[in-house]
Amino acid sequence: MLDTVTRWEELGVFEEIYREARQRVVGLTMGLTADELARTVPACPEWTVHQVIAHLSGQSSDLVTGRMEGAPSDEWTARHVAERAGVPVDDLLEQWNVFGDKIGEMPRIPFQLALDAITHEADLRAALGRERLPDAVWQPTLVWIAPRRLTDVTVKTEFGDVGDGPITLEVEGYELWRAFFGRRSRAQMEAWNWSDRSPIEKIPFFPPRETDLVE
Predict the structure, then answer these.
(1) CA distances in angstroms from 104 to 58, 60, 101, listed in the order given
(2) Under DSSP, is residue 211 helix (H, G, I), strand (E, B) or coil?
(3) Mycothiol-dependent maleylpyruvate isomerase metal-binding domain spans which residues (predicted)?
């Protein structure tokens, strides 16, 4: 996995993913009403739409300024939200653009930052009732993650097989992609078509949800 990360960093793949996600989220959230900004994001039940944007802005600011103590803990992300509680969303988006441009100038952008950006973009799209994240955005990262995270599994998706392990899993690709980032419950993952459910524990980078999330 580290070899793949390095190669993608050298090719600027993560920078492109992050930059394009930022552009889409800015377009998605500019001009939202107060009610829309106050809407709870089901994938992030402690945050509103405004607070998700505050986190994205604060994360980029911290990375550029080196304010990384405690990252990526819940306390670190909570500070992003708390410090920007009264900041208008247009200002948050402008801050994200400024610091995001500086991140784009770095020799290598952390792959976690790019994946976090598209994950939260998917969260926001679902909360606002917009169309799902384009397949061309998430599919390459799923193809990259799945065989390294699930080394014993052949994942059968609607766009082909991923991996070549002895255990088979038939699942919609987007569902697995969301599960990697803690957006599906254990019950949802168990309901997929497995030949052997033992690899479930290897799926989420973060703890799975306690309740089901249907998007």
Answers:
(1) 16, 10, 5
(2) coil
(3) 19-97
CB 180 within 8 A of CB 145: yes
More confident residue, 4 or 21: 21
The backbone torsions φ and ψ at residue 200, rounded to the nearest 5 degrees and listed phi first, read -55, -40
CA distance 56 to 86: 15
Contact between residue 208 and residue 185 where contact means Cβ atoms under 8 Å apart: yes
Helices (H) and strands (E) in the chain, counts: 10, 6
Q: Which residues of 151-187 are buried (b: 16+ CB within 10 A; e: fewer)?
A: eebbbebeeeebbebebebebebbbbbbbbbbbbbbe
Q: What is the pLDDT of residues 30-85, one digit of tens each?
A: 999 999 999 999 999 889 999 999 999 999 999 999 888 888 888 889 999 999 99
Q: Is the CB of residue 118 less than 8 Å from the CB of residue 149?
A: no
Q: pTM of the prediction?
A: 0.92
